[in-house]
Amino acid sequence: MPMDNAAAAAVQNNGISEYRNFVNGRFTAASTSLIEVTNPATGELLGRVPESSDAEVDAAVKAARAAQGAWEKRPAIERAGYLRKISAKVREHRTDLADIIVREQGKVRGLAQIEVDFTAEYIDYMAEWARRLEGEILTSDRPNETMLLLRKPMGVVAGILPWNFPFFLIARKLAPALVTGNTIVIKPSEETPINAFAFAQLAAETDLPAGVFNLLGGRGKTTGEALASHPEVDLITFTGSVETGSRIMQVAGKNLTRVNLELGGKAPAIVLADADLDLAAKAIFDSRVINAGQVCNCAERVYVERPAHDALVEKLTALFKSTRYGDPSREEDLHMGPLINQAGLDKVTAAVETAKRQGAKVVLGGKKADKGEGFHYEPTILTGARADMDIMRKETFGPVLPIQAVDSLDEAIALANDSDYGLTSSVYTNDLNAALKACRELKFGETYVNRENFEAMQGFHAGRRKSGIGGADGKHGLYEFTETQVVYIQGKP
Ligand code: NAD
Questions:
Q1: Residues 197 and 325 placed together within one structural domain of the fold
Q2: Distance between Cα 287 and ligand 1 center (Å)
Q3: Which pLDDT belongs to residue 4?
Q4: Atom 30, ligand 1: which residue's CA is nearest?
Q5: Residues recognised as catalytic
Q6: Which residue of 383, 413, 414, 487 has the smallest Cβ count within 10 Å?
Q7: What is the pLDDT of residue 1?
Q8: pTM for the whole thing?
Q9: Is 170 in the pocket of ligand 1 (CB under 6 A)?
Q10: H or E stretch covering 269
């Protein structure tokens, strides 16, 4: 890459790529403070990204503000055209992008590739809304009056991202924001920023107007908080932990900035005695080892009717035992890689230790994996779980599955609903009435019946209780990026 060229995302420093912010259509001068990014499987240094200052945040927000008026004035179909150019670039570089995700997030190659391909599809899906964005015609109380409800862009959007699906989350924020006429400033997680700089490189190679999309590297407490508390941001769309979501709401409160929060989960999986236990075990296994258990919507606790308990545990144990895990940057065909960092490993280790102390029985795993370097944790099954145990209440975010025996569907539903979280839930049964009852009574944003937890782009991914405010995807997710204006036009008879 050419040195210090405003069209290149990175400059080389002793063989290490140092990335630069993308603001107002250019990669900026190198930042004074940098963050090192490493491979969680090996500790290898992958690159450095800016730790953006308040002044850099301010410049990015101002660039987004300056670009917004002209962007909004373009017909939506033109805005969609720019999105399609970006998705085409993503497809063109699909394997390189997956490779970055494998190395910086520790995701297995197959899933990293799915993430990249899904991202391109998601951008196209949101672009398709260009001709479908609709307002309403309202009925007036007055003679000769026309009343219209218009949907308008919010203005400047700030997107703050987590590390677990880092590339897809760029699209989940950017695509609906841009097609509805907003401009955006994105801050990726400090754990996984390089894929976002690669995305910026691709966007920079299109003719996307300057300032429409801006990217800032940085940590949460500094750059993230400066962005969330900036008075010229009109909407903060955040995906991450409950603690950070709560802090973002607090700082956004100062300016009464609207927030859209996609937070953590503690998804219950309810397995009834009549269920197809092979199907249930496989779906729960898939839902628990994917991304080493670091997925907001995946099965975090199981409630199984007593007659099916032993058989389900046996099937789950066999599947968990078969888990192939290791370093995805060196090994192919793995189920899972390492946890994201030492803090993640410590959190999962402590959660299992606490569960043991509180009386859970380790059927499989239960400790850090002996895999050399990297933050690997053994696939773990715990039985004898109870509602008062932390492992059934707090998000674990690791390959650990606690199982509780229950006497009825009513008991399972009551236990499932008794949670701070309300993102996703699942039920396994062949009894239609039981499935319908679960769907009626489970208080969650999503319920999966006889299948693994994985949302579709045309759905609406939204958490109840502490799992979030608002949601993403589909028509309802799109409209989160708009606000309304009611127009009263008084005509003459
Ligand atoms: P996190 O909250 O630690 O960090 C997320 C982002 O917030 C990062 O970019 C971080 O730099 C930033 N941040 C941290 N403190 C901040 C502050 N004070 N002000 C502004 N920004 C700040 O979350 P994480 O560890 O990256 O992600 C894991 C969490 O995300 C889990 O709880 C998971 O359930 C959740 N998640 C939810 C969804 C969903 O759709 N509901 C999807 C993926 C992940």
A1: no
A2: 20
A3: 45
A4: 240
A5: 262, 296
A6: 487
A7: 37
A8: 0.96
A9: no
A10: strand 267-271
* CATH number of the domain enclosing 347: 3.40.309.10
* Rounded Cα distance, 271 and 303, in Å: 6
List CB contacts of 204: < 8 A, sequence separation 6 or more: 7, 9, 22, 25, 26, 27
Whichever domain contains 152, its CATH number is 3.40.605.10
Q: Which domain holds residue 171?
A: 10-263+468-486
- Residue 243 counted as domain residue: yes
Q: Are residues 109 and 68 in the same domain?
A: yes
The closest of 448, 103, 489, 157 to 280, measured between CA atoms, is 448
Ligand 1 atom with least separation from CA of 463: 41
Q: Do 272 and 202 reside in the same domain of the chain?
A: no
Kindly give the distance from the C-alpha atom of residue 318 to the centroid of ligand 1, in angstroms, as a whole number: 33
User: Residue 7: what pLDDT?
Assistant: 76
Residue with CA nearest ligand 1 atom 12? 220
> Cα(397) to centroid of ligand 1, in Å?
12
Question: What is the pLDDT, as a whole number, of residue 2?
Answer: 40
User: Does 165 share its domain with 17?
Assistant: yes
329 touches ligand 1 (CB under 6 Å):
no
The DSSP call for residue 392 is G
DSSP string, 336-377: B---SSHHHHHHHHHHHHHHHHTT-EEEE--SB---SSS--B
* Residues 221 and 319 both lie in one domain: no
| Tokens at 288, concatenated | 């628990």
Question: Does residue 269's CB lie within 6 angstroms of at least one atom of ligand 1?
Answer: no
Residues 215 and 122 in one domain: yes
Residue 3's pLDDT is: 40
Q: How many domains does the chain contain in total?
A: 2
Helix (H, G, I), strand (E, B) or coil at 475: helix
Same domain (yes/no): 215, 115? yes
Check: CB of residue 484 under 8 Å from CB of residue 298: no
Residues 158 and 185 sit within 8 Å (Cβ to Cβ):
yes
For the chain, list residues with pLDDT below 50: 1-4
The predicted structure's pLDDT at residue 147: 98
pLDDT at residue 29 in the model:
84
Q: How big is the chain, counted in residues?
A: 493
Is the C-beta atom of 422 inside 6 A of ligand 1? no
Token pair 């192939």: residue: 324
Asked if residue 76 and residue 180 are part of one domain, the reply reads yes
